[in-house]
Amino acid sequence: MKKAFMVMKVLIILFIIALLAPVSGINNQASAFSQQVIQHGAVGDDVIELQSRLQYLGFYNGKIDGVFGWGTYWALRNFQYEFGLEIDGLAGQTTKNILMKSSDYNESFVKEQINKGNKFTHYGGTDLEKQKGPSGGQGGATGGQSKPNPQGGNQGAAPKGEGQQNNPSAANMPSGFSENDIQIMANAVYGEARGEPYIGQVAVAAVILNRVGSASFPDTVSGVIFEPRAFTAVADGQIWLTPNETARQAVLDAINGTDPSGSALYYFNPNTATSPWIWTRPQIKKIGQHIFCK
Amino acid sequence: MLKGILIGVLSLGVAGTAFWGYQEHREKNAILINAENNYQRAFHELTYQVDVLHDKIGSTLAMNSRSSLSPALADVWRVTSEAHSDVGQLPLGLLPFNKTEEFLAQIGEFSYRAAVRDLDKDPLSDEEYQTLQNLYGQAADIQDDLRKVQHMVLKNDLRWMDVETALASGNETGDNTIIDGFKTVEKTVEGYDETDLGPAFVNMQKKDENFKYLEGKEITKKEAVKEAKKYSGLKKDAKVRVEENGDGSNYGFYSVSLEDPDTKLEANMDITKKGGYPIWYIMAREVKEQNISLNDASNKAVEFLKENGFKDLDLFESAQYDNVGVFTFVSKQDDMRIYPDSIKMKIALDDGKVLGFTAEDYLKSHHQREIPEPSITKEEASAKINPQVKVMEDRLAVILNDLDQEVLCYEFMGTLGDDTYRIFINSENGYEEKVEKLQNAEPIFDDVV
């Protein structure tokens, strides 16, 4: 009986903490921005706040997604222009101070909407209830693609009441590639080279990209990968194994311009290669089990 | 009694297995036929496109008026690209069939260049007509060869799946009409090579600059290792592996890999033999948390570049992927951005260390350029822009255009609706060299819901 009482007590305390938590979040609003200078390309809580505040003042009309893209950039510059600040597109301390003075930020509202994946806005002078959109199927905090993303911006700043993660609902992509392109390439790299050292995997991804750029091969990522008999992993179905994070990173590195293969168009494993022709290609270098050639 | 039941069960089992096997067999056949049909379609489309190509080039030769030439050449370009994609669908990956693909790409490039040019001002030269005539003849030969193969395929009821099997078993020596036929096509094309394509074809394939602007003397393996240690910041006792490039490489380089004995982390880099410049560097590790901002990281990147002797660079793009910051720098000359000279850097957002570095483009193209004065003014250039676009920013910049030439342009950044565009107007003749829609963030598609 006593034990049950204790359990009850703990539960009640937990319940009270849970009730208080959002309140403390609101109290902390005034100093929510962290110390960082926010610049184009940044991702995270500070960006969500920046977008919300810019939208409150009517400068930003895009989606509040936590990614500092071009829309946010121009909004910030317009804000800096209107308020007589230096127009540099960077949210430094002065800009943030003035932004905080001139706008309100209802953090719990914004976070809640993002978590629910709703379409919503955060304009000043309008009832927030009316700015809630219908629940959306996509986006949201549980995004499968986004890694647990501890926002560094929070560190050292006042703790945010809720203990839950708030991930941005969008992500940066290298220009010219979609998440799906990256996924297909990660599949191919994993299927072809999962046992290889990391740079060997980057090199395989680079070969795919070199082929896309070459006159002798199809002009798209999927065209190159699914060209019959081009990759053994495609032929034997290993391409449909679920790639790991390493393969994905390797693809991103290759897309960002790293080419450990030395501009190779072919590679082969000398132990398993069946075609004698492949040996006639001029060889550039060997990484792991693979020989890369022109 | 027991025997009877046993026999009954067994015979049921046999019947079941037979039925299952039959089902599987039917499914397999259905899939085989499907794959076969895809190959057949690609192949017959290819021969058809080459037919069309031949005719189209022929008719452009006959054209007199410049105004009808441009659309006709554009059409040639379209057909080559379709033919090219058909080749890509055939199971020829391991057959040396790339000459034919290159040939198609060359016709495509030539016709594209000629089609986008203002032929009234700058008509086809005699050499270019000659080139066109050659292409016409070559297309005829390829068409002929392909038709022969096609004829055999149809007459003998040949299957592409057999080609697959023949190639897969490495048994290419056997009598395989399709493979032989394609080898003949390839030989025909190889015969032309690039020799008779005329002066207009110079620079048609992407130029390989081969680090020709690099200065300095050849370095030794030891010096390469020293350089690599400097970049990685690893201690002296790191495990070192150095290799020279293979014979097939266009330029000399050393591949150095260093392994930290404590953490087992590996740093890899390639260094040019000439001058010892870092082509790329990767330090592979997981970055689990973010402690510094993207802005701090960009300052770290700038610091790193300065320390390593890279000067006059402008931060052009920055983006955060998970807990890694990626930065692109381009060089600056007299306050003009030189886009072909680019360096990319990857900085970890946990400790601000360099994770990756790529200077290949920069090393291949960076040099002191003779940049001509713009002959039109900024106002004249901005008048060429779509009036719907709201210009937010402008500057002068050197870019590589579609024809792989460096041109000085006015660069305008502007918005149209929610999108941001980067527009390059040639500073000499006011051509719109490039219009890029800048990438927006991509929504994260939730695969949980």
TrEMBL record, chain A:
Residues 195-293 form the Cell wall hydrolase SleB domain. Residues 120-177 are annotated as: Disordered. Keywords: Cell wall biogenesis/degradation, Germination, Hydrolase, Signal, Sporulation. Residues 134-143 have a biased composition (Gly residues). Gene3D superfamilies: 6.20.240.60, Cell wall hydrolase SleB, domain 1, PGBD-like superfamily/PGBD. Signal peptide: none annotated. It comes from the Bacteria. Residues 163-177 have a biased composition (Polar residues). Pfam families: Hydrolase_2, PG_binding_1. Belongs to the SleB family. This is Spore cortex-lytic enzyme. It comes from Cytobacillus purgationiresistens.
From TrEMBL, chain B:
Residues 27-162 form the Sporulation protein YpeB N-terminal domain. Residues 180-372 form the Sporulation protein YpeB PepSY1 and PepSY2 domain. InterPro entries: YpeB_N, YpeB_PepSY1-2. Pfam families: YPEB_N (PF20769), YPEB_PepSY1-2 (PF14620). This is Spore germination protein. It comes from Cytobacillus purgationiresistens. The lineage of its organism: Bacteria, Bacillati, Bacillota, Bacilli, Bacillales.
